[in-house]
Amino acid sequence: MSTNNIWTHKGTFLLAAVGSAVGLGNLWRFPYLAGENGGGAFLLIYAVTLFAVGVPILIAEILLGRSSRRSPIMGMRFLSRTHGTSRAWESIGWLGAASAFIILSFYSVIAGWALHYTWRMITGSLAGADAATIASGFDALLASPALLTLYHTLFIAASGLIVGLGIHRGIENGLRVLMPALLAILLVILAYSAMQGDMNAAARFLFTFQLSDLSVAGWLAAMGQSFFTLSLGMGAIMAYGAYMPGEASLSRTALAIVVIDTAVALIAGLAIFALVFGADLAPDEGPGLMFVTLPLAFAEMPGGSLVGGAFFILVLGAAISSAISMIEPVAAFLVERFDLNRAQAVAAMVITSWALGLLSVFSFNVWAEHSPFHELLGLSAFGLLELLTHIFMPLGGLMISLFAGWALTHGEVMKELRTSEGWFQTWRFLVRFVSPAAVAFVFLQAIPQLDG
Ligand code: PFF
Ligand code: NA
User: Fold this and answer.
1) pLDDT per residue as tens digits for the range 118-174
2) Which CATH fold topology does 3-450 show?
3) DSSP per residue over 434-450, as a string?
4) Best of 20, 24, 57, 175 to mutate for ligand 1, by most ligand atoms within 8 A of CB?
5) pTM of the model
6) Domain range summary for the chain, segments of one domain joined by +
7) 201 Cα: distance to centroid of ligand 1 (angstroms)
8) Which one of 84, 306, 358, 383 is least enclosed by Cβ atoms within 10 Å?
Protein backbone atom coordinates (compact mmCIF):
# COMPACT_ATOMS: atom_id res chain seq x y z
CA MET A 1 0.00 0.00 0.00
CA SER A 2 1.40 3.39 -0.98
CA THR A 3 1.78 6.41 1.30
CA ASN A 4 -1.02 7.83 -0.77
CA ASN A 5 -3.27 6.11 1.68
CA ILE A 6 -1.77 7.58 4.83
CA TRP A 7 -3.09 10.78 6.44
CA THR A 8 -0.89 13.77 5.70
CA HIS A 9 -0.29 14.71 9.35
CA LYS A 10 0.06 12.96 12.65
CA GLY A 11 -3.04 14.72 13.93
CA THR A 12 -5.29 14.07 10.92
CA PHE A 13 -6.60 10.79 12.30
CA LEU A 14 -7.81 12.60 15.42
CA LEU A 15 -9.48 15.25 13.28
CA ALA A 16 -11.17 12.64 11.11
CA ALA A 17 -12.23 10.46 14.03
CA VAL A 18 -13.66 13.44 15.89
CA GLY A 19 -15.44 14.42 12.68
CA SER A 20 -16.93 10.95 12.59
CA ALA A 21 -17.81 10.82 16.27
CA VAL A 22 -19.33 14.27 16.68
CA GLY A 23 -22.65 14.32 14.89
CA LEU A 24 -26.39 13.94 15.28
CA GLY A 25 -25.59 11.53 18.09
CA ASN A 26 -24.23 14.39 20.20
CA LEU A 27 -26.45 17.25 19.14
CA TRP A 28 -29.77 15.50 18.58
CA ARG A 29 -29.76 12.06 20.16
CA PHE A 30 -27.81 12.56 23.40
CA PRO A 31 -29.89 15.50 24.63
CA TYR A 32 -33.22 13.85 23.93
CA LEU A 33 -32.15 10.51 25.42
CA ALA A 34 -30.97 12.32 28.54
CA GLY A 35 -34.25 14.23 28.56
CA GLU A 36 -36.30 11.05 28.34
CA ASN A 37 -34.24 9.00 30.78
CA GLY A 38 -34.03 11.26 33.80
CA GLY A 39 -31.11 13.56 32.98
CA GLY A 40 -28.33 12.89 35.49
CA ALA A 41 -29.24 9.24 35.92
CA PHE A 42 -28.72 8.69 32.23
CA LEU A 43 -25.48 10.60 32.30
CA LEU A 44 -24.10 8.41 35.06
CA ILE A 45 -24.74 5.13 33.24
CA TYR A 46 -23.53 6.67 30.02
CA ALA A 47 -20.22 7.63 31.62
CA VAL A 48 -19.76 4.09 32.94
CA THR A 49 -20.43 2.41 29.57
CA LEU A 50 -18.28 4.98 27.80
CA PHE A 51 -15.20 4.16 29.83
CA ALA A 52 -15.71 0.47 30.49
CA VAL A 53 -16.81 -0.39 26.95
CA GLY A 54 -16.35 2.58 24.64
CA VAL A 55 -12.68 3.38 25.22
CA PRO A 56 -11.35 -0.19 25.08
CA ILE A 57 -13.32 -1.05 21.94
CA LEU A 58 -12.32 2.21 20.33
CA ILE A 59 -8.68 1.33 20.91
CA ALA A 60 -9.30 -2.20 19.60
CA GLU A 61 -10.91 -0.89 16.45
CA ILE A 62 -8.12 1.58 15.64
CA LEU A 63 -5.63 -1.18 16.37
CA LEU A 64 -7.21 -3.56 13.85
CA GLY A 65 -7.28 -0.83 11.22
CA ARG A 66 -3.73 0.30 11.70
CA SER A 67 -2.22 -3.16 11.92
CA SER A 68 -4.02 -4.41 8.81
CA ARG A 69 -3.73 -1.19 6.77
CA ARG A 70 -6.73 -2.26 4.71
CA SER A 71 -10.44 -1.51 4.49
CA PRO A 72 -12.40 -3.39 7.21
CA ILE A 73 -13.52 -6.42 5.18
CA MET A 74 -10.15 -6.97 3.49
CA GLY A 75 -8.39 -6.08 6.73
CA MET A 76 -10.22 -8.72 8.75
CA ARG A 77 -9.65 -11.26 5.98
CA PHE A 78 -5.93 -10.44 6.14
CA LEU A 79 -5.73 -10.53 9.94
CA SER A 80 -7.67 -13.77 10.30
CA ARG A 81 -5.45 -15.37 7.70
CA THR A 82 -2.16 -14.23 9.24
CA HIS A 83 -3.36 -15.41 12.65
CA GLY A 84 -4.56 -18.75 11.41
CA THR A 85 -7.98 -18.08 12.91
CA SER A 86 -11.35 -18.75 11.36
CA ARG A 87 -12.41 -16.70 8.38
CA ALA A 88 -15.61 -16.06 10.29
CA TRP A 89 -13.91 -13.00 11.76
CA GLU A 90 -14.24 -11.42 8.35
CA SER A 91 -17.91 -10.97 9.25
CA ILE A 92 -16.78 -8.03 11.39
CA GLY A 93 -16.19 -6.25 8.11
CA TRP A 94 -19.43 -7.41 6.49
CA LEU A 95 -21.52 -6.54 9.52
CA GLY A 96 -19.90 -3.12 9.57
CA ALA A 97 -20.64 -2.56 5.91
CA ALA A 98 -24.28 -3.48 6.48
CA SER A 99 -24.43 -1.01 9.37
CA ALA A 100 -22.85 1.67 7.23
CA PHE A 101 -25.53 1.38 4.54
CA ILE A 102 -28.31 1.34 7.10
CA ILE A 103 -27.08 4.18 9.30
CA LEU A 104 -26.24 6.42 6.39
CA SER A 105 -29.70 5.81 4.95
CA PHE A 106 -31.61 7.23 7.90
CA TYR A 107 -28.91 9.59 9.14
CA SER A 108 -29.19 11.42 5.85
CA VAL A 109 -32.97 11.70 6.16
CA ILE A 110 -32.69 13.25 9.62
CA ALA A 111 -29.84 15.53 8.59
CA GLY A 112 -32.25 16.60 5.84
CA TRP A 113 -34.61 17.94 8.51
CA ALA A 114 -31.75 20.11 9.76
CA LEU A 115 -31.35 21.43 6.23
CA HIS A 116 -35.01 22.43 6.29
CA TYR A 117 -34.64 24.17 9.65
CA THR A 118 -31.47 25.96 8.62
CA TRP A 119 -33.48 27.44 5.81
CA ARG A 120 -36.50 28.30 8.00
CA MET A 121 -34.26 29.96 10.58
CA ILE A 122 -32.09 32.09 8.35
CA THR A 123 -35.07 33.34 6.38
CA GLY A 124 -36.59 34.38 9.72
CA SER A 125 -39.82 32.61 8.90
CA LEU A 126 -40.16 31.17 12.42
CA ALA A 127 -39.52 34.39 14.36
CA GLY A 128 -42.30 34.95 16.87
CA ALA A 129 -44.17 31.81 15.84
CA ASP A 130 -46.22 30.08 18.54
CA ALA A 131 -46.03 26.46 19.71
CA ALA A 132 -48.92 25.28 17.54
CA THR A 133 -47.45 26.81 14.39
CA ILE A 134 -44.04 25.29 14.98
CA ALA A 135 -45.38 21.87 15.83
CA SER A 136 -47.60 21.82 12.76
CA GLY A 137 -44.68 23.00 10.63
CA PHE A 138 -42.67 19.94 11.72
CA ASP A 139 -45.66 17.68 11.07
CA ALA A 140 -46.05 19.20 7.62
CA LEU A 141 -42.39 18.53 6.85
CA LEU A 142 -42.71 14.89 7.91
CA ALA A 143 -45.93 14.54 5.93
CA SER A 144 -44.21 15.44 2.68
CA PRO A 145 -42.32 12.56 1.02
CA ALA A 146 -41.23 14.91 -1.76
CA LEU A 147 -39.64 17.45 0.55
CA LEU A 148 -37.99 14.78 2.70
CA THR A 149 -36.62 13.07 -0.38
CA LEU A 150 -35.27 16.33 -1.74
CA TYR A 151 -33.35 17.11 1.47
CA HIS A 152 -32.18 13.52 1.84
CA THR A 153 -30.86 13.60 -1.74
CA LEU A 154 -29.03 16.89 -1.26
CA PHE A 155 -27.40 15.77 1.96
CA ILE A 156 -26.24 12.36 0.77
CA ALA A 157 -24.98 13.78 -2.52
CA ALA A 158 -22.89 16.40 -0.72
CA SER A 159 -21.40 13.72 1.54
CA GLY A 160 -20.63 11.50 -1.44
CA LEU A 161 -18.96 14.37 -3.24
CA ILE A 162 -16.49 14.93 -0.40
CA VAL A 163 -15.56 11.25 -0.17
CA GLY A 164 -15.38 11.02 -3.95
CA LEU A 165 -12.64 13.65 -3.94
CA GLY A 166 -10.41 11.26 -2.02
CA ILE A 167 -9.00 11.05 1.49
CA HIS A 168 -6.64 14.00 1.03
CA ARG A 169 -8.42 16.38 -1.29
CA GLY A 170 -11.91 15.59 -0.01
CA ILE A 171 -11.93 14.31 3.56
CA GLU A 172 -8.80 15.99 5.00
CA ASN A 173 -9.31 19.34 3.36
CA GLY A 174 -13.02 19.37 4.09
CA LEU A 175 -12.53 18.58 7.77
CA ARG A 176 -9.73 21.07 8.22
CA VAL A 177 -12.16 23.87 7.36
CA LEU A 178 -15.30 22.38 8.82
CA MET A 179 -14.23 21.26 12.28
CA PRO A 180 -12.83 24.58 13.59
CA ALA A 181 -15.89 26.38 12.20
CA LEU A 182 -18.15 23.96 14.05
CA LEU A 183 -16.27 24.51 17.30
CA ALA A 184 -16.67 28.28 16.92
CA ILE A 185 -20.42 27.97 16.31
CA LEU A 186 -20.81 25.63 19.29
CA LEU A 187 -19.17 28.19 21.59
CA VAL A 188 -21.36 31.00 20.24
CA ILE A 189 -24.47 28.89 20.93
CA LEU A 190 -23.23 28.13 24.44
CA ALA A 191 -22.65 31.81 25.16
CA TYR A 192 -26.03 32.76 23.73
CA SER A 193 -27.85 30.11 25.75
CA ALA A 194 -26.04 31.21 28.91
CA MET A 195 -27.30 34.76 28.33
CA GLN A 196 -30.79 34.02 27.09
CA GLY A 197 -31.60 30.72 28.74
CA ASP A 198 -31.67 29.15 32.18
CA MET A 199 -28.25 27.53 32.57
CA ASN A 200 -28.80 26.67 36.23
CA ALA A 201 -31.88 24.67 35.45
CA ALA A 202 -30.03 22.93 32.62
CA ALA A 203 -27.09 22.03 34.86
CA ARG A 204 -29.42 20.84 37.62
CA PHE A 205 -31.26 18.69 35.10
CA LEU A 206 -28.14 17.13 33.60
CA PHE A 207 -26.00 16.72 36.69
CA THR A 208 -28.30 15.70 39.52
CA PHE A 209 -30.08 12.41 39.61
CA GLN A 210 -32.33 10.19 41.60
CA LEU A 211 -31.41 6.55 42.00
CA SER A 212 -34.99 5.66 41.17
CA ASP A 213 -34.43 7.06 37.68
CA LEU A 214 -31.92 4.29 36.89
CA SER A 215 -33.79 1.85 34.69
CA VAL A 216 -32.97 -1.12 32.48
CA ALA A 217 -34.30 0.86 29.53
CA GLY A 218 -31.85 3.58 30.48
CA TRP A 219 -28.94 1.10 30.46
CA LEU A 220 -29.95 -0.11 27.05
CA ALA A 221 -30.23 3.38 25.71
CA ALA A 222 -26.88 4.37 27.22
CA MET A 223 -25.06 1.37 25.79
CA GLY A 224 -26.56 1.86 22.34
CA GLN A 225 -25.71 5.53 22.53
CA SER A 226 -22.09 4.93 23.50
CA PHE A 227 -21.57 2.81 20.38
CA PHE A 228 -23.44 5.20 18.16
CA THR A 229 -21.78 8.34 19.45
CA LEU A 230 -18.25 6.95 19.09
CA SER A 231 -19.02 5.47 15.63
CA LEU A 232 -18.00 2.08 17.01
CA GLY A 233 -18.43 -1.43 15.72
CA MET A 234 -19.01 -0.63 12.09
CA GLY A 235 -15.61 -0.13 10.53
CA ALA A 236 -15.63 3.65 10.21
CA ILE A 237 -12.91 4.02 12.81
CA MET A 238 -11.10 0.96 11.49
CA ALA A 239 -11.00 2.45 7.99
CA TYR A 240 -9.70 5.78 9.29
CA GLY A 241 -7.23 3.94 11.54
CA ALA A 242 -5.80 2.19 8.49
CA TYR A 243 -4.58 5.58 7.26
CA MET A 244 -3.00 6.51 10.60
CA PRO A 245 0.76 7.00 10.48
CA GLY A 246 2.68 4.52 12.59
CA GLU A 247 4.14 7.03 14.99
CA ALA A 248 0.88 8.58 16.25
CA SER A 249 -0.01 7.44 19.80
CA LEU A 250 -3.02 5.23 19.78
CA SER A 251 -4.34 5.20 23.32
CA ARG A 252 -3.88 8.91 23.81
CA THR A 253 -5.76 9.56 20.58
CA ALA A 254 -8.58 7.24 21.62
CA LEU A 255 -8.92 9.00 24.94
CA ALA A 256 -8.97 12.39 23.22
CA ILE A 257 -11.78 11.25 20.91
CA VAL A 258 -13.93 10.14 23.84
CA VAL A 259 -13.26 13.30 25.84
CA ILE A 260 -14.04 15.60 22.91
CA ASP A 261 -17.13 13.66 21.88
CA THR A 262 -18.46 13.73 25.43
CA ALA A 263 -17.65 17.41 25.88
CA VAL A 264 -19.58 18.27 22.73
CA ALA A 265 -22.57 16.22 23.87
CA LEU A 266 -22.51 17.92 27.28
CA ILE A 267 -22.12 21.42 25.85
CA ALA A 268 -24.91 20.79 23.36
CA GLY A 269 -27.06 19.32 26.13
CA LEU A 270 -26.45 22.28 28.44
CA ALA A 271 -27.12 24.81 25.69
CA ILE A 272 -30.27 23.09 24.45
CA PHE A 273 -31.75 22.55 27.91
CA ALA A 274 -30.87 26.09 29.01
CA LEU A 275 -32.86 27.41 26.06
CA VAL A 276 -35.67 24.93 26.58
CA PHE A 277 -36.01 25.68 30.32
CA GLY A 278 -35.54 29.40 29.70
CA ALA A 279 -38.58 29.28 27.44
CA ASP A 280 -40.53 27.18 30.00
CA LEU A 281 -40.69 24.17 27.74
CA ALA A 282 -40.50 20.44 28.57
CA PRO A 283 -37.21 18.50 28.27
CA ASP A 284 -38.76 15.13 27.45
CA GLU A 285 -40.12 15.66 23.98
CA GLY A 286 -38.01 12.85 22.52
CA PRO A 287 -36.78 13.13 18.92
CA GLY A 288 -38.79 16.34 18.50
CA LEU A 289 -36.60 18.12 21.07
CA MET A 290 -34.35 19.60 18.41
CA PHE A 291 -36.94 20.17 15.73
CA VAL A 292 -39.94 21.43 17.70
CA THR A 293 -38.97 22.44 21.22
CA LEU A 294 -35.72 24.15 20.30
CA PRO A 295 -37.03 26.14 17.31
CA LEU A 296 -39.81 27.34 19.59
CA ALA A 297 -37.26 28.53 22.14
CA PHE A 298 -35.35 30.33 19.38
CA ALA A 299 -38.58 31.83 18.03
CA GLU A 300 -39.23 33.55 21.34
CA MET A 301 -35.74 34.96 21.90
CA PRO A 302 -34.03 38.09 20.60
CA GLY A 303 -31.70 37.27 17.72
CA GLY A 304 -33.12 33.74 17.79
CA SER A 305 -33.38 33.39 14.02
CA LEU A 306 -29.72 34.17 13.50
CA VAL A 307 -28.42 32.00 16.33
CA GLY A 308 -30.93 29.28 15.44
CA GLY A 309 -29.67 29.37 11.86
CA ALA A 310 -26.10 29.00 13.10
CA PHE A 311 -27.21 26.12 15.32
CA PHE A 312 -28.71 24.17 12.43
CA ILE A 313 -25.65 24.84 10.29
CA LEU A 314 -23.65 23.28 13.13
CA VAL A 315 -25.94 20.27 13.08
CA LEU A 316 -25.54 19.93 9.32
CA GLY A 317 -21.76 20.24 9.39
CA ALA A 318 -21.43 17.73 12.22
CA ALA A 319 -23.74 15.34 10.36
CA ILE A 320 -21.81 15.59 7.11
CA SER A 321 -18.46 14.89 8.76
CA SER A 322 -20.04 11.76 10.26
CA ALA A 323 -21.72 10.69 7.03
CA ILE A 324 -18.44 10.72 5.12
CA SER A 325 -17.01 8.26 7.65
CA MET A 326 -19.85 5.84 6.87
CA ILE A 327 -19.12 6.02 3.14
CA GLU A 328 -15.32 5.66 3.35
CA PRO A 329 -15.02 2.04 4.61
CA VAL A 330 -17.40 0.67 1.99
CA ALA A 331 -15.96 2.78 -0.83
CA ALA A 332 -12.42 1.75 0.11
CA PHE A 333 -13.51 -1.91 0.08
CA LEU A 334 -15.06 -1.61 -3.40
CA VAL A 335 -11.88 0.01 -4.71
CA GLU A 336 -9.65 -2.64 -3.13
CA ARG A 337 -11.71 -5.67 -4.00
CA PHE A 338 -13.25 -4.86 -7.38
CA ASP A 339 -10.78 -2.37 -8.69
CA LEU A 340 -13.46 0.27 -9.17
CA ASN A 341 -12.28 3.83 -9.32
CA ARG A 342 -13.16 6.00 -6.38
CA ALA A 343 -16.04 7.82 -8.06
CA GLN A 344 -17.70 4.55 -9.05
CA ALA A 345 -17.24 3.06 -5.61
CA VAL A 346 -18.68 6.08 -3.84
CA ALA A 347 -21.59 6.27 -6.28
CA ALA A 348 -22.42 2.60 -5.72
CA MET A 349 -22.41 3.03 -1.95
CA VAL A 350 -24.32 6.30 -1.89
CA ILE A 351 -27.01 5.38 -4.41
CA THR A 352 -27.79 2.12 -2.59
CA SER A 353 -27.97 3.88 0.74
CA TRP A 354 -30.08 6.65 -0.78
CA ALA A 355 -32.62 4.08 -2.00
CA LEU A 356 -32.68 2.42 1.41
CA GLY A 357 -33.31 5.87 2.89
CA LEU A 358 -36.61 6.07 1.06
CA LEU A 359 -37.92 3.45 3.49
CA SER A 360 -37.31 5.94 6.29
CA VAL A 361 -38.79 8.79 4.28
CA PHE A 362 -42.04 6.87 3.85
CA SER A 363 -42.08 5.81 7.49
CA PHE A 364 -43.01 9.36 8.44
CA ASN A 365 -45.93 9.73 6.05
CA VAL A 366 -47.45 7.14 3.70
CA TRP A 367 -46.27 4.30 5.96
CA ALA A 368 -46.72 6.12 9.24
CA GLU A 369 -49.56 3.89 10.44
CA HIS A 370 -49.67 0.90 8.14
CA SER A 371 -46.84 -0.74 6.28
CA PRO A 372 -45.58 -4.21 5.47
CA PHE A 373 -43.11 -3.67 8.34
CA HIS A 374 -45.85 -2.92 10.84
CA GLU A 375 -47.70 -6.04 9.82
CA LEU A 376 -44.66 -8.28 10.03
CA LEU A 377 -42.79 -6.84 12.97
CA GLY A 378 -44.95 -4.26 14.63
CA LEU A 379 -42.63 -1.37 13.83
CA SER A 380 -42.03 1.15 11.12
CA ALA A 381 -39.28 0.70 8.56
CA PHE A 382 -37.39 3.52 10.26
CA GLY A 383 -37.87 1.82 13.62
CA LEU A 384 -36.63 -1.46 12.21
CA LEU A 385 -33.51 0.10 10.67
CA GLU A 386 -32.72 1.91 13.89
CA LEU A 387 -33.20 -1.29 15.87
CA LEU A 388 -30.90 -3.19 13.50
CA THR A 389 -28.11 -0.69 14.05
CA HIS A 390 -28.53 -1.09 17.79
CA ILE A 391 -27.94 -4.80 17.30
CA PHE A 392 -25.26 -4.66 14.61
CA MET A 393 -23.03 -2.01 16.19
CA PRO A 394 -22.72 -3.70 19.61
CA LEU A 395 -22.38 -7.09 17.92
CA GLY A 396 -19.59 -5.72 15.72
CA GLY A 397 -18.00 -4.15 18.78
CA LEU A 398 -18.24 -7.43 20.69
CA MET A 399 -16.45 -9.31 17.91
CA ILE A 400 -13.84 -6.57 17.51
CA SER A 401 -13.03 -6.67 21.19
CA LEU A 402 -12.83 -10.48 21.24
CA PHE A 403 -10.57 -10.59 18.21
CA ALA A 404 -8.29 -7.84 19.46
CA GLY A 405 -8.26 -9.29 22.96
CA TRP A 406 -7.70 -12.96 22.16
CA ALA A 407 -6.25 -13.32 18.67
CA LEU A 408 -3.65 -10.56 18.58
CA THR A 409 -0.40 -11.36 20.31
CA HIS A 410 1.22 -9.32 23.05
CA GLY A 411 3.93 -8.24 20.61
CA GLU A 412 1.52 -7.11 17.92
CA VAL A 413 -0.56 -5.03 20.28
CA MET A 414 2.49 -3.48 21.92
CA LYS A 415 3.91 -2.60 18.53
CA GLU A 416 0.85 -0.38 17.97
CA LEU A 417 0.01 0.69 21.51
CA ARG A 418 3.54 1.21 22.78
CA THR A 419 2.45 1.82 26.37
CA SER A 420 3.33 0.50 29.78
CA GLU A 421 2.75 -3.12 30.57
CA GLY A 422 0.22 -2.06 33.21
CA TRP A 423 -1.98 -0.16 30.79
CA PHE A 424 -1.70 -3.00 28.29
CA GLN A 425 -2.90 -5.50 30.91
CA THR A 426 -5.78 -3.21 31.87
CA TRP A 427 -6.84 -2.75 28.29
CA ARG A 428 -6.61 -6.43 27.53
CA PHE A 429 -8.65 -7.35 30.56
CA LEU A 430 -11.32 -4.87 29.47
CA VAL A 431 -11.55 -6.14 25.87
CA ARG A 432 -11.29 -9.78 26.85
CA PHE A 433 -13.88 -9.83 29.58
CA VAL A 434 -15.55 -6.58 30.55
CA SER A 435 -16.75 -5.22 27.21
CA PRO A 436 -17.97 -8.59 25.91
CA ALA A 437 -19.82 -9.26 29.15
CA ALA A 438 -21.42 -5.83 29.14
CA VAL A 439 -22.55 -6.14 25.53
CA ALA A 440 -23.86 -9.67 26.10
CA PHE A 441 -25.77 -8.50 29.15
CA VAL A 442 -27.44 -5.75 27.21
CA PHE A 443 -28.38 -8.16 24.42
CA LEU A 444 -29.99 -10.54 26.86
CA GLN A 445 -32.02 -7.67 28.22
CA ALA A 446 -32.93 -6.48 24.75
CA ILE A 447 -34.21 -9.74 23.29
CA PRO A 448 -37.58 -9.74 25.08
CA GLN A 449 -38.16 -6.24 23.72
CA LEU A 450 -37.98 -7.50 20.16
CA ASP A 451 -41.37 -9.11 20.26
CA GLY A 452 -42.85 -6.73 22.76
N1 PFF B 1 -20.94 9.06 15.79
C2 PFF B 1 -21.96 9.66 14.97
C3 PFF B 1 -22.82 10.55 15.83
O4 PFF B 1 -22.68 10.58 17.04
O5 PFF B 1 -23.67 11.23 15.27
C6 PFF B 1 -22.81 8.64 14.26
C7 PFF B 1 -22.03 7.64 13.49
C8 PFF B 1 -21.04 8.04 12.60
C9 PFF B 1 -22.27 6.31 13.67
C10 PFF B 1 -20.32 7.13 11.90
C11 PFF B 1 -21.54 5.36 12.98
C12 PFF B 1 -20.57 5.80 12.10
F13 PFF B 1 -19.86 4.94 11.43
NA1 NA C 1 -21.11 11.25 18.59
Assistant:
1) 999 999 999 999 999 999 999 999 999 999 999 999 999 999 999 999 999 999 999
2) Amino acid/polyamine transporter I (1.20.1740)
3) IHHHHHHHHHHHHHHHH
4) 20
5) 0.94
6) 3-450
7) 29
8) 84
